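User: Design a sequence. Structure:
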């Protein structure tokens, strides 16, 4: 016998398969069950395309009458790119609806559930809610802050180094971890580095996946003095690039780069450099909902210090580099006391090939 929980788990697993493809929309899965049998399933596959419920009801057809709908996010109540799912659910004939979590979108937030309740449908909210919120951590953050969800990722040796004193870093982590990082790039909208990394490593910041056409994130370069070399790899045509700079930047160079389709975002400066919170607000307006920060130490430190990291993904390689001048993942200003450390909570610790992957979330205060 399958339980409500089992069906909701199936809906969550269905939703997960579209990871990285639905931005700016959430990941949503729906399952319709009649007399213990799954008669309809649906996934929201892409923004602009039908919502999960639409696919599920199309599949279920007449079997929806008297059935139960399991959906990972509250059915929507608004006209967006698609019409409201709550109306569809209401008119489908289902008698019971289980919703994992309410939709944080201010245009919905409880209205979808209310429509169903008003129609006399038995509605329950909260089954596997924590899992459903985690599945859409990016979307919840977007809706509540109007900022991209920031993931800070780095790979370091067992003694906490990301490069030798000369800056050499190929490779710290093993092949499997590096493949995971390309998978991550494939899922996010934006990838950010500082100009220091561009000057030192000349990275491409594109997605390279074997046997699969990857999607390149928008490359975002923090460059307050517009030092970027005109032949830098990140300026090639393989992917879109945004340079974040200040009004102090050389207008002639800006004009030349604009001719090459490079987009500029201008931000004010604070004592630490470019005002990152202001930048995040602007990036969100440019459609960046999910941002991967891939360092250097100074950029990483600024994000951590300003409390702007939402998630840490850290690979630890079974190597010890040593060296007084080897480079650390988080640089920035020194602090005097342990009490001043930024605190995180480990969420998962797993082996990836020969490495370890730690996922951690910041702890406020
Ligand atoms: C659902 N089921 O599968 C999804 C929902 O522009 P639209 O019409 O696609 O609407 C996008 C909003 O709809 C999105 O911000 C979120 O609030 C909700 N997404 N709702 O009932 C789905 N993807
Ligand atoms: Zn909908």
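Assistant: Done.
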């Amino acid at each position: 016998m399958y339980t409500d929980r089992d069906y909701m788990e199936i809906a969550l697993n269905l939703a997960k398969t579209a990871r990285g493809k639905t931005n700016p929309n959430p990941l949503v899965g729906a399952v319709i069950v009649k007399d213990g049998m799954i008669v309809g399933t649906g996934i929201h596959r892409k923004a602009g395309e039908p919502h999960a419920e639409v696919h599920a009801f199309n599949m279920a057809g007449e079997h929806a009458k008297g059935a139960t709908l399991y959906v990972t996010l509250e059915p929507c109540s608004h006209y967006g790119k698609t019409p409201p799912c709550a109306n569809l659910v209401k008119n489908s004939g289902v008698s019971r609806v289980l919703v994992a979590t309410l939709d944080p979108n201010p245009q919905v937030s409880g209205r979808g559930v209310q429509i169903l309740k008003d129609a006399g449908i038995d509605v329950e909210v909260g089954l596997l809610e924590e899992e459903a919120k985690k599945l859409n951590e990016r979307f919840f953050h977007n809706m509540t802050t109007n900022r991209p969800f920031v993931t800070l990722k780095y790979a370091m040796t067992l003694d906490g180094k990301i490069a030798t004193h000369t800056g050499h870093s190929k490779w710290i982590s093993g092949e499997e971890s590096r493949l995971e990082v390309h998978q991550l790039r494939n899922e996010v909208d934006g990838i950010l580095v500082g100009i220091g990394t561009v000057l030192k490593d000349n990275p491409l910041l594109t997605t390279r996946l074997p046997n699969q056409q990857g999607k390149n994130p928008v490359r975002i370069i923090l460059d307050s003095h517009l030092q970027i070399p005109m032949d830098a790899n990140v300026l090639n045509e393989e992917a879109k690039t945004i340079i974040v700079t200040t009004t102090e930047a050389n207008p002639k160079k800006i004009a030349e780069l604009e001719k090459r389709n490079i987009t500029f975002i201008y931000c004010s400066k604070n004592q630490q450099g470019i005002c990152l919170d202001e930048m995040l607000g602007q990036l969100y307006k440019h459609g960046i909902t999910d941002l991967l920060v891939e360092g250097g130490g100074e950029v990483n430190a600024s994000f951590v210090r300003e409390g702007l990291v939402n998630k840490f993904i850290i690979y630890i390689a079974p190597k010890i580099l040593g060296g007084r001048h080897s480079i650390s993942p988080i640089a920035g200003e020194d602090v005097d006391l342990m009490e001043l450390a930024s605190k995180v909570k480990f969420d998962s610790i797993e082996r990836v090939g020969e490495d370890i992957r730690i996922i951690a979330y910041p702890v406020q205060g």
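The longest strand covers residues 343-352. The chain has eleven helices and 16 strands.
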